[in-house]
Design goal:
With about 220 residues, this protein is an alpha+beta fold. The chain has 2 helices and 17 strands. The longest helix is centred in the N-terminal third of the chain and has 24 residues.
Length: about 220
C-alpha cells in the first residue's frame, strides 16, 4: 500500500513539475503601446465574408495619449476626430466627430471611403503584440501594424502612336520620360478623367486610354498589358 502511495505521489509530483516547466516556457507577448503609436492599415475585411483583403492605400490612425482625440489619413485625406474607450488591449472602442480635408482622390478612392466607413462602425478592439484589430461586435473590420508598409507605386506602360511610354504614379504625381527628358507632372483638377500637367506637357488618363499633349500636339495613347 505504501509503495502504491509513493508511486502515485511521485506521478502527481511529476505532472506538477511538467506543468511548471511548460508554463515557464510560454512566450510573453509585449504589446506595442495602443495610444501615441501611428498604426498603419495592413488589411481591410470583406463586409460579407470577413476575409482579410490586402490594401493599396497608405491609411493610418493615431489615438492620442493625452485626451480622447484621433488623427490619421484615409490614404488621400487627413482626418481628425474623437474616441471613447480604449482603456485596455481588449475592450470597447468607438469613434465620432470626424472631420477631414477634401482633396480629390485620384487612386483607390473606393478603398479610402471603405476605410472611413469601417472606422465609423468600430465598437471593439484587440491588441496583440504588434497587431491591432478593430471589430464591430465580433466581426473584424480593420487590421493595423506600427510598421509602415512600403510605398505603393503604380507603373503603367502606354503605346502613344508608335512610341512606348512608361509612366509611374506616386503621391498624386506622374513621372515619365518624353523626348529624352524626365518629366514630373503634378495632378490638377479635371472635369473628367485624371489630369497631370507641368509647363511643357499635359498627360490625361481615362480608363485604359490617355492623351499626351505637348507643343499644341495631341497624341492618343493606349494602356498596354
Amino acid at each position: 500500500m505504501r509503495l502504491l502511495t509513493t508511486i502515485l505521489m511521485g506521478f502527481l509530483l511529476g505532472l506538477g513539475l511538467m506543468s511548471c516547466s511548460l508554463n515557464s516556457e510560454k512566450p510573453v507577448v509585449q504589446n506595442v503601446p495602443l495610444k501615441g503609436t501611428t498604426w498603419h492599415l495592413t488589411h481591410q475585411y470583406d463586409p460579407k465574408t470577413f476575409d482579410a483583403i490586402g490594401v493599396d492605400i497608405q491609411a493610418s490612425l493615431v489615438l492620442s495619449d493625452a485626451g480622447f482625440s484621433i488623427s490619421g489619413s484615409d490614404g488621400c485625406n487627413r482626418f481628425v476626430g474623437a474616441y471613447q474607450g480604449a482603456q485596455s488591449a481588449d475592450g470597447r472602442l468607438s469613434f465620432s466627430r470626424f472631420s477631414s480635408t477634401r482633396m480629390a482622390c485620384i487612386h483607390h478612392a473606393e478603398q479610402s471611403q471603405a476605410f472611413m466607413a469601417a472606422l465609423k462602425g468600430v465598437t471593439e478592439l484587440e491588441l496583440y503584440g504588434k497587431i491591432l484589430t478593430l471589430y464591430q461586435g465580433n466581426k473584424p473590420l480593420l487590421r493595423f501594424s506600427p510598421e509602415a508598409p512600403a510605398k505603393q507605386v503604380q507603373r503603367v506602360n502606354y503605346r502613344c502612336g508608335t512610341t512606348d511610354l512608361k509612366v509611374h504614379f506616386e503621391d498624386q504625381t506622374a513621372y515619365l520620360n518624353w523626348l529624352d527628358e524626365e518629366q514630373i507632372l503634378p495632378y490638377v483638377l479635371s472635369a473628367s478623367g485624371t489630369k497631370y500637367m507641368n509647363n511643357q506637357l499635359t498627360f490625361w488618363t481615362k480608363g485604359r486610354k490617355a492623351f499626351l499633349i505637348w507643343d499644341k500636339q495631341n497624341l492618343a495613347c493606349e494602356q498596354q498589358d
